[in-house]
Amino acid sequence: METASKPRYGLNPYREWIEKEGLRVAEGVSLDLFEVETADWPRYGVKGSACHFAGSGDYCNMFLIEISAAGSTSPQQHLYEEIYYVLEGRGSTQLEFAGGRKRSFEWGPRSFFAIPLNAKYRHFNGSGSQRALMVETTTLPMIMNIFHDEEFIFNTPGAFQSREGDEKYYNGEGDLFRGKPGSNVWETNFVPDLNALELLPWEERGQGSSNISFVLADGIMHAHISEIAPATYKKAHKHAAGTHVLTLTGDGYSLLWNEGDKDFTRVDWSHGVVFPPCEQQFHQHFVTSADASRYVATGLGNMRYPLTAAKRLQKNKVDRSIKEGGNQIEYEDQDPRIHQIWLEEMRKRGITPRLTLPVGN
């Protein structure tokens, strides 16, 4: 039987849901989260904004949540994962699991935590005079595009007890699993302050670099924190889209380019600036201060649950030269312009570079 109705092809249920929610949307190659405008979001009972980036990919997004003084979010429960970072403010989060089991923890600036899958939760601003500003990376785009059923995603009862984690995971403790440099994992649900977290050396990614990866709430989301040594920069590398890079400390910039590009796209960053590099887009991070710089990256597929074939392969490519089939460009193989641009930036700031490259760079 033929129908005269318009066919529904090429749909994006996640984008349709965002429009239905009436949620304010911020878009760009990068965004300064402190400058993103928020608006009332009835579902959460606070102000919010969806943050969409050119390099977000199809799996993850970001929501910016602004809780007014003495305010709180409405109770939430859903079948997508989320990882929070506190940009400013202090408060607490209360969780309720199947059977009435409850847990809570207090957070402050630069706290980092995950909500266990389908747990009931609520955030409370602990200040009576200042707002709290939080950003969450979520798997909602993937989950909404798979199920395209709002009722199922937000109102399905179900207990995922393995996701709750040990009691110590809610008070800042965790378990460290050591591997080769770049493969060390901290398992927890809550990090009180990402600035205070001890990182482990990863010289293969750059002179003086350090890093640690996370498993949070036994989830499938990726997260890692890296530190770039003062007055240095990391080696260029590439990977799949959707890794949201958020600056925590320090000042600097990143260059992004696709293979064959004649010019670079530049993103200047400081605390609160986010950018996800696009699919297989080379990117390189440069510190332009005498202090170290930290960033946290969130996305899909971690050390425990890579989720995709590409993620499984990436583990062995991330710090291996492209000349050997990896995803990294060694200092001696990079475009000579890259080092010269950085040296000029350091000269402008009167900072002595601490990175010396082979002759010709």
Task: Walk me through this protein's architecture.
By secondary structure, this protein is mainly β. It has 2 domains: 13-165, Jelly Rolls, CATH 2.60.120.10; 168-349, Jelly Rolls, CATH 2.60.120. It has 5 helices and 25 strands. The protein has helices at residues 13-21, 140-147, 150-155, 309-314, 336-349, and strands at 25-28, 31-32, 39-41, 46-53, 61-67, 82-88, 91-96, 102-107, 112-115, 120-125, 132-138, 175-177, 185-188, 190-191, 200-201, 210-216, 221-228, 236-237, 244-249, 252-257, 265-269, 273-275, 282-287, 293-300, 328-329. The strands form 5 sheets. Strands 2, 12, 13, 15, 16, 17, 19, 22 and 24 form a 9-stranded mixed sheet that branches. A hairpin with a 5-residue loop joins β7 and β8. α1 packs across α2 (140-147). It starts with 12 loop residues before the first helix and ends in a 12-residue tail after the last helix. The relative contact order is 0.13.
